[in-house]
Request: fold
Amino acid sequence: MSDYVIPPPPPVVVPTADGRPFPVRRVYCVGRNYADHAVEMGHDPEREPPFFFQKNPDDLVTDGRFVYPRVSQDVHHEIELLVALGSGGRCLTPTEAEAAIWGYGVALDMTCRDIQAAAKAQGRPWIAAKAFPGSAPCGVITPAAAIGHPQRGAVVLRVNDVLRQQGDLSQQIWKVPEIIANLSARFHLAAGDIVLTGTPSGVGPVAPGDELEGFIEGVGTLAVRVTCEAD
Ligand code: MN
Reply:
């Protein structure tokens, strides 16, 4: 007999280069963290304090598929560096924040741009635009023990072999340790937390049948096929 009134949900896990899965606790995302993307979204590229939103742990998908949601007609790709925490805490310094990182990966912050635009116009939360099922395809997490803490390196996304996004980690407005330190002032971070660290310019729509290929130099790759809900 279970001690629970209902069966507990299964843990959400992401595969790692270590061979053992990474169990996910929370997923935080940073908005507008590359100046050229802030500009393309109609904002001032000045260094404003970072702002955050969340996805759900089980929005992470690792089966190489992105299911296009019926509720949107304008889903965009945003390629992002994924950071996975091996420990946490409150009010970390940037040095402590970097020490808390277990590994890195490549992820897509898939975004229903039409729903997000309506939410922005009405001053409403982004949850329906950002945290829908399957909204965070991601690849294997590689331990920092193997690759270090990448501070520069190409961030590239191709759709059907056409270059769509191209930036560099060095262009991040808020560096990864700063992002985590800032998050830790607001939330209690813990092992299992994942942070998506923003996207360079070139975001744009996807359609069923598209083949997305992401690459972050020194980190890894991600291949995703866009499918319909009925597929
Ligand atoms: Mn994003």
